[in-house]
Amino acid sequence: MSALNWQKIDTGFARELDPTGQLRILSCYQCKKCSSGCPMERDSDLHPHQIIRMVQIGRKEETLRSKGIWTCVSCQTCVTRCPMDVNTPAVIDALRAMASRAEIPKSVRQVSLFNRIFLEWAKRLGRIYELGMMGTFKAGSLNLFSDMEKFPMMLRKGKLRILPHLSRRRSNLRRVFKRTIKKGPK
Amino acid sequence: MTEKMSYTFYPGCSLHSTARDYRESSEAVCAALGVELVELPDWVCCGATAAHATNEKLALALPLENLSRAAEVGRDVVVACAACFNRFRVANLAVRNDRVVRAEMEEIVGRPYDGSLRVRHILEILLHDVGLVSIRRHVRKSLRSLKVACYYGCLLARPREVSIFDDPENPRLMDDCMDAIGAEPIEWPHKTECCGAAYSLTNPDMAIRLSGDILFMAKEAGADCVAVACPLCQSNLDLRQRDIERQRNEVLGLPVFYFTQLMGIAFGLSERSLGIQRLVVNPVEVLKRIAEQSRSPALR
Q: How many secondary structure helices (H) and strands (E) does chain A include?
């Protein structure tokens, strides 16, 4: 891979994702240490160093529609090993926040569905109610039977609550949700 | 120990459900060591990966909603779940280092907070505040020659600025703890590999593959059991172990303990108080061995 000619490159997308420059997107020189240690390397269409390069050169549509931004498991290995302190997991989070639902490839759509359901339960009760959350998720993803055989054993071992566990600070929590989702990117 | 150590405890959602045994064993071990954990009243969910993958501000505001309440008491905040711990540290640093972020968060949360509380992990307080000398003094049972693979996972070690370890690539804290209770921590390469926790429900096959790699490496290195400090790691390695064995057509039979459970066993606390009966992979062989060698005259 040859060095980039920055004069010819539009860095608008990188700046849009990271206005202050603190994620250090433009500092990446493609050493690939990130991708060598990435546990999702096998399952992804774009590897971490490729995601960063796509952002550097402004390939916005392709990056937002990639599977790679959804297969990332947020293990933080890439940023910990990066010699240039490029914050790849934060870049990927920003890309996920920017991608609209329509752009998410079918094979990874359950990730954003799960996130949405998780936050919905957190907002409603203040705490996660696994049984309810898993029920909504499995119904929503039409994946009703995976892991079902584990439920009776988990209940027997006291690993699942039958009834939810509420926090009394839910009204303040709803305010937090309202203010952030409105304020934040998108 | 001269005075009682006291902390504000944030259990998080998992410690009230899938990881009840982590809470039970943490409380039991802390009580035995004279550490008081006071649960933060009406704590709320930290938002976990779902929040940071959705909205950056929400991901900071949820931990800060808890931290700003804890600040009214002022004690160090102790977290046991590695995922909650990571989110708390990230949010705490964000408001400590950036005045603009701090002002915005104070407005969202509706309470002032400057990031001055210390966010600690339970492994840290037991090893640093209580210390190895005191831990050793409480040992009543012999874990001699019990080979333990200490598995740290991602979120206690990474990224560097929130890590509780000197070396995020080769942490030693839990190994030191296992050594102090008389067990034998083994050297192995997968201490901080990812178990796939964030996708345990959305992409179980992937979690099964990553967790399988970790368990087989532990077995290969000669482990009798695995010790963990994260509810998500524990459930992937324990609850999914049978799926892993089925898929690879090979038996593992590796019990996956919370490190606090092994401490409690070494201290001679009752199995029930440590939630041992909640483990999925049956640890009976390990427990039998400890009971047998603790009876023999050459204790430890």
A: 11, 0
Q: Are residues A113 and A79 in the same domain?
A: no
Q: Which two tokens stand for residue B93?
A: 């640093």
Q: Is the pTM of this model over 0.90?
A: yes
CB B85 within 8 A of CB B125: no
A74/B17 Cβ within 8 A: no
Asked if B159 and A79 come within 8 Å (Cβ–Cβ), the reply is: yes
Q: Which residues contact B100 (CB under 8 A, 6 or more apart)?
A: none
Integer Cα distance of B242 and A2 in angstroms:
48
Mean pLDDT per 10-residue segment, chain B (300 residues): 82 95 98 98 95 95 98 96 97 97 97 97 97 98 97 96 92 98 98 92 91 98 98 96 96 98 98 98 97 77
Nearest residue of A to residue B42, measured between CA atoms: A167
Distance from CA of A7 to the nearest CA of B (A): 31
Q: For residue B227, give both structure tokens.
A: 């010790």
- Regarding whether A37 and A93 lie in a shared domain, the answer is yes
- Facing residue for B202 by CB, picked from A76, A114, A176: A114
Architecture of the B5-122 domain: Up-down Bundle (1.20)
Instruction: Specify if A74 maps to a domain.
Output: yes
Q: Which of B92, B78, B77, B236 is nearest to B154 (CA)?
A: B236
**What CA–CA distance (Å, rounded) separates A60 from A11?**
11
Angstrom distance (rounded) from CA B90 to CA B115? 10
**CA-based nearest residue to A58, from A103, A6, A3, A1:** A6
ipTM for the predicted complex: 0.91
Query: Looking at the 3D structure of chain A, how many domains does it have?
Result: 2
